[in-house]
Amino acid sequence: MGERGETEATGRVTIRDVAARAGVSVATVSRVLAGNYPTSAASRAKVLRAAKDLDYVANAHARALAGAGRKTIAVLLLDVVSSYYAAVAQGVEKEAAQHDRLTLVASTGADPARELALVQMMREQTAEAVVLVGGVVEDAAYRERMAQYAQSLAAAGSRLVLCGRPAPAPDVPAVVVEYDNEAGAHAVTSHLLGAGHRKIAMIGYQPGNTTGEDRVRGYLRALADHGVPRSDAVLHGVGFGQHNGDRAMRDLLDRCDGKPEFTAVFAGDDRVALAAVKVLHAYGLRVPEDISVVGYNDDPVAADMTPGLTTVHIPGEELGRTAVRLALGDTGRSQQRRQLLGTHIVIRDSVRPVTP
Amino acid sequence: MGERGETEATGRVTIRDVAARAGVSVATVSRVLAGNYPTSAASRAKVLRAAKDLDYVANAHARALAGAGRKTIAVLLLDVVSSYYAAVAQGVEKEAAQHDRLTLVASTGADPARELALVQMMREQTAEAVVLVGGVVEDAAYRERMAQYAQSLAAAGSRLVLCGRPAPAPDVPAVVVEYDNEAGAHAVTSHLLGAGHRKIAMIGYQPGNTTGEDRVRGYLRALADHGVPRSDAVLHGVGFGQHNGDRAMRDLLDRCDGKPEFTAVFAGDDRVALAAVKVLHAYGLRVPEDISVVGYNDDPVAADMTPGLTTVHIPGEELGRTAVRLALGDTGRSQQRRQLLGTHIVIRDSVRPVTP
DNA sequence: CTGAAAGCGCTTACAG
DNA sequence: CTGAAAGCGCTTACAG
Predict the structure, then answer these.
(1) Same domain for B113 and B101?
(2) Residues near chain C strand, CB within 7 A
(3) Structure confidence by residue, pLDDT tens digits, A308-354
(4) Can you give the residue range of the structural domain that contains A33?
(5) Strand D contact at CB of residue A277, distance < 7 A
(6) What is the 3-state secondary structure (H, E, C) of chain B?
């Protein structure tokens, strides 16, 4: 400000400008600014003064090329606004910031081609790690894709982090952070069973999607554990989300002319649960007086809706934090590392004991 | 894969490796990969083949240093999960992606020092634009800070974008994208007035914060327009958010022993509205039968809660998109550019005409 | 403690 | 159409 540097006329001011104004070499400027090398108090003062006068900031690209500077973490999600993804993104960003990393976000829109393109871009950026978030359909194509990502990232000194996604083969050099999806489903179903419910409908999950499948597995296991015959299970998953929840709930109610045999509904996620409650009301059924409802995710809506929804909490932000923590861990070995985070049930007001 | 390159033994494969394998010069590799220069079909084929064999991706830092490559947009928000910020972030990311830009996110936690540090980092990254999101207390310090950001960013060929924030002095080289905050408040208050409400309590905004002040202004103007004396206005803003909404609503109700004179509540944001409805219920007051309630933001909770909340829609994602669109516009002039986005009222079920 | 110089991996005039 | 070379802005051995 105020004083005008010789070279700052146009464009950026570089380390050369600072050196000139301070009357020292470029090397010295670099060293005092990095502060990782002995420098005399005199040059230190001159350099700092000059840098401030010129409002100098180093060029991160040049720094990176020279093998130094701040690193970057990339997070690739289906979208940015959904509460689960937003929570993971926030965890990634916060943990990254704590380790003095910057974070790059991009949304894939569930498009594998886009995902691949983004992984390549992140390789170009020499991201220190790229974390992939979100459930998927786990098929051979998926596994192969992940193996390739992991390989090419590793070759560039970066690493792949799978967050809430199934791990590829054990020899694939990836970091995996998951949450205990099945246990949560088991717990919340058991909660219903413990309240005396026997006939529990499970709706609102996407068949084939690993997240949905794991929840179904937990539900079925809980039923079995409580001696409910498999034939009493009612499964109707047409997809996640509010729209699908609405549809699934209506299907079930229409099938029985609005007089269901089930006394409780386990919704694949909280938005499905919200839709289910609304449909139930529309059919003249009260929640929880007539029908109990539980969800999954502990989305903000669960606490906001009426009645408050009993659901399973997923540690979204913690998943993100753990993802970068693990990614930043010893870069030495290239073997796979995994971590499983716990889930727990959050009890609110949408479940009532069945009265015989 | 498969075949092993000569130099790829350790670390990254560079353009030099590709050139060697293809039997051409580094310059030629650069040109065919960039595709912005005439090259023979023969070399093109060889280069592409070699690049593929070696799984080559260019180093973005080297590219950037050489004055080419993909640009980056930075977005700085209070936090990542709040629905408004998440919506803006999503808009920024999507629009940036459409223009082949990458997006860097960081949260400031409402800390000016952190904000400043982030702006510097983004300067280092040579971000093409840095978008600052969120309401603020507009004082001299704020204006000066923004002027400095704008200045130093401009000096580096980047630009400052203020999103949903007051513009600094007109000569400051910034881009400003706002939404019509006051008009929205005016509209929703008028909606209440049109339904016969005269005594309308406004709660849940933060005094001093520009966002809150603008909403109060719209409320007051609507009252005046409808001939309601200023003395009938009841203003009780102790802050945004659910917690403050709960507190404000209780305050008001306690003051009158649960028998309010007001027949309607205008909440400063939707989470405040949610809290207000819950408190009202707790006091035995029905919404909208006894008291009408409106909010602001059109947060997801507005559609989810019961009753559905009549509120003002803010075009969050569109704000983000517009921010980058404007930032990417002609880089020529360094004067300020502004855009005001509209808001509109969303009518749901939380308002009822007053019956005399 | 400090400077000159090489080098990071690209791109782009400049010749040919 | 193609190559040799300079240059982008730093950092870091290497001498001193």
Answers:
(1) yes
(2) A 24-28, 31, 37-40, 42-44, 62, 65-67; B 11-12, 14-16, 26-27, 30-31, 33-34, 36, 56, 58-59, 62-63, 65-69
(3) 999 999 999 999 999 999 999 865 555 568 999 999 999 999 999 99
(4) 15-65
(5) no
(6) CCCCCCCCCCCCCCHHHHHHHHCCCHHHHHHHHHCCCCCCHHHHHHHHHHHHHHCCCCCHHHHHHCCCCCCEEEEEECCCCCHHHHHHHHHHHHHHHHCCCEEEEEECCCCHHHHHHHHHHHHHCCCCEEEEECCCECCHHHHHHHHHHHHHHHHCCCEEEEECCCCCCCCCCEEEEEECHHHHHHHHHHHHHHCCCCCEEEECCCCCEHHHHHHHHHHHHHHHHCCCCHHHCEEECCCCHHHHHHHHHHHHHHHCCCCCCCCEEEECCHHHHHHHHHHHHHCCCCCCCCCEEECCECCHHHHHCCCCCEEEECCHHHHHHHHHHHHHCCCCCCCCEEEEECCEEECCCCCCCCCC
